[in-house]
Every structure is written in structure tokens, then in C-alpha cells.
Design goal:
The chain is built from 27 helices and three strands. A three-stranded antiparallel beta sheet has the order 2-1-3. 55% of the residues are buried. The protein is mostly helical. It has two domains: 386 residues, Up-down Bundle (Growth Hormone, Chain: A); 67 residues.
């Protein structure tokens, strides 16, 4: 009856949703420039294209936890997978800015898989391996992120190859549509695979379906552990008959205070330190260092690779070192990395020389073929920051020409240490991947009591999504008004605040059963 690899198989299937999320989240990094030109978007509209899924995800977060308590984890995951498929189809065939935002927003409701997957995996995994199993979801997220960066670069490279078959399938004319449309394949695989897994024993017991729960537990655990697990679940379930509204009130009770405070701190810190600005705007950020569009897409691939490598490191360490040490190490790395980026951009200068002016005039890829002679008065003028340089370009050649040719104009005029920016961004991603990325979702699956887990994860997930939406929406505006240096400095400051609070308040959770953790967090601190 016992199948040693059964819980691992279930975790892998559910974690496919993490891959689709990662792909969906980062594929837009290669698309936003194309759609900004095609639909003539301003920075706020471009921010909405990127952030629309997170905004709808905020709305979905309000109901997804209670829905999972009523319908079960599996049924909710099936709904999520279907929404991913629908969103990918609609995004690829969007004919307007409004349609693209709506299509992306549909996929945002599916972003709630970030909460349901750790909940599901946490409830079917043995305590000793729960951290690693939940981290499989984060691993799939970063593999999805990396896959999107790679496919974006690959499609961009093919679109400029001049091959006849590329033009025949419309890849040259509709580059961004192919980038978005590829998501259909993993989303469909995820949807079909979900039919092969059961619901969790804890949910089944809560629904009075003990026979089903008994059969599943005996597949998940050895006989000597299965009976103890069933007894624990039954005892825990006896106090879980409150309504959704009663449970919502309970999460603000004194026994939940520490868990809720810790959950909110970790949820806010994960997003306010800027990770989704990096993931969703990676090519744009690298273009700011003056390396050009193609090289920026290539460096974005490195972001994905580093993310995958250090997620493996986190998986190896999370049940050995514990959750708190990884958060401390990771946040310290984020602080140092943001300092590097701040210093690099603060030292940058921008000058259009006679030589670079000649190169701009000879450039074949100039969008809209604006009158390059308009730039002549700027020859030899040095700007000490990117904001003044960009504002002067807009005043000189017009907003649309400045936006569409920003990468070329920065590349032709900037003087800075681009390697420093690359190392700062990669260091940030590595630090995030061993800490806030996987650890947050592991903690969410552990620190809340069983009877309140769905509602509590919805609440802190709502806060997490809200902060994420804000970061994504305002990033283009921050670049335009504050500049790159101040933007990255603000992320470093938030990381310092998060580190202090986590060192102060977070108890260690590794190796403890969900029921033991419920007792720890319920005690007065």
C-alpha cells in the first residue's frame, strides 16, 4: 500500500503550476518593449501590462483560501490551470492594449497557485522533508522564469535571422505574440496532470471522508507512521468546524498574533525589496547599463540560470540549516547587491560624442526613423544622471522617439561599469533564491494552524500580492522620475528593515510537525 515516491510525485505535479507561473511572470519582460511600441503605451500603461496579473491575483487571493477549504485543494488547482491556458491564448491574440491587459489579468487569478501549491504539498509531506518538498514548487517557478528568458532570447534571435520559414509563420512580424503563446503548452500539461493526484488527507478528514483520507495516508507514509498521522489529523480536525467568517475573525486573535505578524513581515519583505522589478523588467534594467537590446536579453538568461542554481542550493540547505539562517544570509546578500547597483548607476555619465552621433545616424534599427539631426545640439553635453539625460531626449526628439530608441541612445552615450550592474543583479537574484523565494512559502505552509491555514495564507498572500503589484506598476515610473540609482537604493533600505524584523521575531520551524508548530506560535512571545 505504501508508495515511497507517491508524495514526491504529487508534489512534482502540483509544482508544475509553479513552472507556468514563473514562465507567465517573466515572459512579459521580453514583451513589454514590443507592445509599448505597437500600442503606443506610456510608462503607466506599460506598468499595467506587466502588473495586471498581480492586481487580479490580489482579488483572487481574497477568496482562494476559503475556496480551497470548501472545494478542496485539487479542484481549485484545476480551475487555476484552466485559467492559465485561457490567459495564454487570449494574450497571444490580443489586438489592443485593453484586450492584452484583460487577458493578462485572467492569468493573474491563476497566480493564486503560489498559495495553494505550498498548502497542498505541506499537507501531504512528512515533516522531515516538508521544506524540500515545498521548495520543489519554488524550483519550478525559477525554472519557468529561466525558460521564459531563454525562449524570449531565442525567439528574438530567430525573428532577426531573415530565414524564410521565420517570416512564413509570422515570427518576424509577431515576435511578442509567439513569446506569450508558448505558455499554452506547459499550462495544458499542468491541467491534464492534475487529474492523476488526490486531494489532501487533512481536507478529506475535514469533509468527513475518512476512508479516502485513510487510503491516501497509507500511500504517503510507512505503516508505522500512517496511523499516528491519521490520529493527529483527526484530533486537529475536531476543532475545525467553524465557518469561513469565524475563521477569518480567528486569524486576528491573540493565539495567531505572532504567526500573523511574522507572515506579514515576510510577505512584505519578499516583494518590497524589488524581486519582481528584476524578474519582470530584466532586459529593461540591463538596457539601462548601455549594453543594447540583444545583449540585455542574453543577460536576462543569466538571471534565470543563477536563479535555478541557487534554488537548488536552498533546497539542499532549508531542512539542514533551517528557515531563519537562510533568510538572514539571503537578506544580507540582497543589501550588498543593491548597494553595488546603486553605486554603479550613481557613477554613470551620459555624453553623445561626435563618434557616437555618427553611429546613431548610421544605425539601421532606429524606430520611426526620427530626425537624428535634432540630437546635434547635445553633442559634447555630459549628464550626471539618467533622469536628466532621458528628459532632455524627450524634449529634443519627442516622447515616442525617445521611448522607442532608448536602448540605442543609452548604449551610444553612457559611460559606466556595466559589469558592476550585472554582478549586483545576479547577486540579488542568488540571494533571493536561497532565502525569500522558497522560504516564504515554506513558512506559510507551516506557521498557521491547520483549521486557519487556508484563510490565513489568503490574508498574507493578499498583502504579498498587493505589494508586488505596487512594485511592478511603479517601476517604470521610478526609472523615469527617480532614476536607477535611487530606485535600487530604496530596495536596499527595505531589505535592511526586513532583516532586522526577521532576526527579532521569527522562531525556527525546521523539523517540527504542523501540530508542534501550532503550539509554538500560540504561546505568548
Amino acid at each position: 500500500m505504501y508508495k515511497p515516491s507517491y508524495s514526491l510525485y504529487c508534489a512534482i505535479v502540483v509544482s508544475l503550476g509553479g513552472f507556468v507561473f514563473g514562465f507567465d511572470a517573466s515572459v512579459i519582460s521580453g514583451v513589454v518593449g514590443f507592445v509599448s511600441t505597437e500600442f503606443n503605451l506610456n510608462p503607466i500603461q506599460a506598468g499595467f501590462v506587466v502588473a495586471a496579473p498581480t492586481l487580479s491575483g490580489v482579488l483572487g487571493t481574497m477568496v482562494i483560501g476559503p475556496m480551497s477549504d470548501v472545494l478542496g485543494r485539487k479542484k481549485v488547482l484545476l480551475i487555476i490551470a484552466f485559467l492559465y491556458v485561457l490567459s495564454a491564448l487570449a494574450s497571444a491574440f490580443a489586438v489592443s492594449y485593453e484586450m492584452l491587459v484583460i487577458a493578462r489579468a485572467i492569468g493573474g487569478f491563476a497566480f493564486t497557485s503560489l498559495m495553494i501549491a505550498p498548502m497542498y504539498i505541506g499537507e501531504i509531506s512528512p515533516a522531515a522533508s516538508r521544506g524540500k518538498r515545498v521548495s520543489i514548487n519554488q524550483l519550478n517557478i525559477v525554472i519557468g522564469l529561466s525558460a521564459a528568458y531563454f525562449t524570449n532570447y531565442f525567439i528574438l534571435d530567430l525573428s532577426t535571422s531573415g530565414a524564410e520559414w521565420v517570416a512564413a509563420i509570422g515570427l518576424e512580424a509577431h515576435t511578442w505574440r509567439w513569446m506569450l503563446g508558448l505558455e499554452i503548452l506547459p499550462a495544458l500539461i499542468f491541467f491534464l496532470a492534475l487529474f492523476t493526484i488526490p486531494d489532501t488527507p487533512r481536507w478529506l478528514v475535514n469533509q468527513g471522508r475518512e476512508d479516502e483520507a485513510n487510503g491516501i495516508v497509507r500511500k504517503l507514509l510507512p505503516p508505522e507512521e500512517a496511523e499516528n498521522e491519521l490520529t493527529t489529523i483527526r484530533n486537529s480536525s475536531a476543532s475545525e468546524q467553524e465557518s469561513v467568517w469565524e475563521r477569518l475573525g480567528d486569524i486576528f486573535g491573540p493565539k495567531m498574533r505572532l504567526a500573523l505578524i511574522v507572515g506579514i513581515i515576510v510577505a512584505v519583505t519578499q516583494q518590497i525589496t524589488g524581486i519582481n522589478a528584476i524578474f519582470f523588467y530584466a532586459p529593461t534594467i540591463f538596457e539601462q547599463s548601455g549594453i543594447g537590446t540583444n545583449a540585455a536579453f542574453a543577460q536576462a538568461v543569466l538571471v534565470g540560470v543563477i536563479n535555478v542554481i541557487f534554488t537548488f542550493v536552498a533546497m539542499a540547505l532549508i531542512d539542514r540549516w533551517g528557515r531563519k539562517p537562510l533568510l538572514i544570509v539571503g537578506l544580507s546578500g540582497i543589501i550588498f547587491s543593491m548597494a553595488l547597483c546603486t553605486y554603479g548607476f550613481a557613477k554613470a555619465t551620459y555624453t553623445i560624442s561626435n563618434e557616437s552621433f555618427t553611429q546613431i545616424q548610421a544605425e539601421e534599427d532606429i524606430e520611426d526613423k526620427f530626425d537624428t539631426e535634432l540630437l546635434r545640439p547635445l553633442i559634447g553635453v555630459t549628464f550626471d544622471n539618467d533622469v536628466d539625460f532621458k528628459n532632455t531626449l524627450r524634449d529634443t526628439i519627442g516622447k515616442e522617439a525617445a521611448r522607442d530608441n532608448e536602448s540605442l541612445l543609452i548604449k551610444s552615450s553612457i559611460s559606466m561599469n556595466a559589469i558592476l550592474i550585472l554582478m549586483g543583479i545576479l547577486g540579488f537574484v542568488a540571494s533571493f533564491a536561497i532565502s525569500l523565494g522558497p522560504v516564504m512559502w515554506v513558512l506559510f505552509s507551516e506557521i498557521f494552524p491547520n483549521q486557519l491555514r487556508g484563510v490565513a495564507i489568503s490574508f498574507v498572500g493578499l498583502i504579498n500580492s498587493g505589494v508586488s503589484f505596487g512594485v511592478q506598476l511603479v517601476f517604470p515610473i521610478e526609472l523615469a522620475t527617480l532614476g536607477a540609482a535611487l530606485t535600487f537604493a530604496s530596495y536596499g533600505v527595505f531589505a535592511v528593515i526586513g532583516l532586522v524584523l526577521i532576526v527579532w521575531l521569527l522562531p525556527e520551524t525546521k523539523g517540527k510537525s504542523l501540530e508542534q508548530l501550532e503550539q509554538i506560535f500560540a504561546k505568548p512571545q
